Amino acid sequence: MHELRIHGRGGQGAVLASKILAKALVEEGKFVTAIPAFGFERRGAPVAAFMRFDDKEIRRINNIYTPNSVLSIDSSVIRAVNVFEGIQPGGIWVHSTKDAIESLTFPDDLCTLGLCDAISIAMEVFRRPITNTIMLGAFAKTTGVVSLQSLKKGLESSNFRDAGLHQNMIAIERGYAETTVYPLQQQRNREAS
Question: Strand, coil or helix: what is 71?
Answer without folding.
Answer: strand
